[in-house]
Specification:
With 25 residues, the chain is mainly α. The chain has one helix at 6-14. The N and C termini lie close together (12 Å). 0% of the residues are buried.
Length: 25
């Protein structure tokens, strides 16, 4: 995951699937 900036990872960590409501990571 070092290829992605920390801000991107933080953003992905807060994004949730619209159907399941679970975190992506």
């Amino acid at each position: 995951m070092t290829l992605y900036p920390k801000l991107i990872l933080d953003a992905l960590a807060t994004v949730r699937y619209p159907g399941t409501g679970k975190n992506l990571v």
